[in-house]
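Re: that chain you flagged

S.,

Sorry for the slow reply, it's been a week of failed gels. I finally had a moment to sit down with the sequence you sent. For the record, here it is as I used it:
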Amino acid sequence: MYSHSRNGAAYLAALSYAAILGFSFLFVKLTVTEASPMDVLAHRFALSFIALTIPVLLGWIKISITRRDIVRILPLALLSPLVYFPLQAFGLMSTSSSEGGIIQATVPIFTLLFASYFIKERTTGVQKISLLLSVFGVIFIFVMKSGAPLASNSFGGILLLVLSAVCLSGYNVLARPLTQKYRPMELTYVTSILGCVVFNLAALGYHAIDGSMSAYTAPLVKPDYWLALAYLGILSTLVTSLLSSFALKWIEASKMSVIGNLSTLISMLAGAYILQEQLAYYHIIGAIMIIAGVLGTNFGGRKSFAPSQTTSANR
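Prediction finished late last night. Pasting the C-alpha cells below so you have them in one place:
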C-alpha cells in the first residue's frame, strides 16, 4: 500500500512539474521584453534563493549539508541551472521558439540513452517505442505550426539548443542517484545558491564592464516584471526543482523525462484559452501521440526492481 501511494505521489509531482513548465512560456515572454536573458536569470535565481532562505533562517525548513555535500552536488548544478539555462537562452536568441521546442523534445531520447548506459535503467521495447511516439508528437506539432523544421540559418543557435537538451538529460540521470542520498530540499537549496551567485556575478560583471549598471535594476520597478519573475523564480525554478527531485527519487529518469513532454500540451492549451490562439487538427493529432507515448512509457513495461530505491535511505 505504501509503495503505491509513494509512486502515486511521485507521478503527481512529475505531472505538476510538467504543468508549471507548460505555463512558464507566458511569463518568459513578459520578462525578456524588459531585460536581457542574463539579467532575467540573475533576478530569477536571486528571488528563488531568497524565497527558500527565509524559511530556512526561520527554522521552518531544516537544511543539513557540508562542504563535501556541496562538492558532490556541484556537477548537478553545473548541468542545470548553470549551463542549461544560458545555453537555452542564448540559443533561442538566434533561433525560433518552434525550433527550440523541437530540439527540447529530444530530451527523453538523450535521457533514455544516458540512463541505460550510466545508471543501468532497463526499458522494454514497448516503452522505447512509446517514448519515441511522444517525442514525435511534440515534433509534429512544432513542425506543422512553423511549416519548416530547423529552418534557421544559425547553426550556432541550434548547436546551443542541442547542448542544452543534452545538459537537461544529464541532469535527469545524475539527479536520480543523488535523490537517494539527499532530500529534495537539500538538492534544490544548493543548486539555487550556486545559480544565484554565478548568474548575478555574470550579469553584474557584464554591466560593470559595459557601463550599463542601471540596466540591471531598471526592470525591477515594473509590477508586470515582478509578477512574471515571481512565477519563474518561485514556481518554475524553485518548485519545479523540488518536484523533479522528489519524482526522480521514486520513478526512473526516462519516465520522468517523457512526462515532461506534457508541458507542450499545457502550453498549447494555455495559448488557446489565455492568448486566444487557434487550435488546429495537428495539435489534436500531436496531443494524442504525446499522451499515448507517456502512458506507454510509464505503464507499458514490466515491473522491475530498482536497487537504488531500497538500498539507500533518505538522509
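What I noticed first: The longest helix spans residues 2-32.

Talk soon,
D.
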